[in-house]
Design brief:
208 residues; globular; 45% helix; Spore Coat Polysaccharide Biosynthesis Protein SpsA, Chain A
Length: 208
């Protein structure tokens, strides 16, 4: 019998020591399996992890995000017609700036139905395979995937908070990182190729 859900976690080669910790934190059981996959391009990593998965659902989780208690039970409550979904975005930080960012994400998701990968995207395995998985993009592979997934059927938002590390916002500056993210997504919707956006992203971070 297949597990109910396969959790696929892309990690960077230098973070391979995290693999066992992540698996232990989520916990393998007959109903779930945890797959960590190392590599340099997230979309390719997640496709490789999905190819090894046997669960009815695939959940793609960033290595610096933590699932809430009862997460798998809530996925089970997804309507029969739902093809995929996500969790509520939250940051593991008490700063007021974190709350502002969370509210901004909530509005984006409510208006555009466009969550990002740091919200724990989940999808029925058959639907994922029909879509051909993630595109091999250097950036915004999650946005591209969700735009295609929306056309496949209804989506389901789990209201539980999936907490993501605020380390990158702390390092770059709350406002600077948020504006940078906004510039990248704006460029994407304006038709700037992801490869060019990825070069800009790398150049900006090399300056810091």
């Amino acid at each position: 019998m297949n597990p109910f859900v396969s959790v696929v976690i892309p990690i960077s080669p230098q973070d391979e020591a995290l693999a066992d910790q992540l698996r232990q934190a989520i916990g393998d059981s007959p109903d779930r399996e945890v797959i960590t996959i190392s590599g340099s391009q997230r979309g390719t990593q997640m496709n490789a992890g999905a190819s090894r998965a046997t669960g009815d659902w695939l959940l793609f989780l960033h290595a610096d995000s933590r699932l809430p208690d009862g997460w798998d039970a809530r996925i089970r409550t997804a309507p029969a017609e739902a093809v995929g979904g996500w969790f509520r975005f939250a940051l593991d930080d008490d700063a007021w700036q974190a709350r502002v960012i969370e509210r901004g994400v909530a509005w984006r998701v409510r208006l555009l139905r466009l969550p990002y990968g740091d919200q724990g995207l989940f999808v029925r395995r058959g639907v994922f395979e029909r879509l051909g998985g993630f595109q091999p993009l250097p950036l915004l592979e999650d946005v591209d995937f969700m735009r295609r997934l929306k056309r496949e059927g209804p989506l389901f938002e789990v209201p539980l908070p999936l907490r993501t590390s605020s380390r990158r916002w702390r390092h770059d500056g709350w406002l600077r990182r948020s504006l940078g993210n906004l510039a990248i997504i704006s460029g994407y919707f304006a038709g700037v190729p992801p490869a060019r956006l990825a070069r800009w992203y790398r150049q900006e971070h090399e300056k810091r």
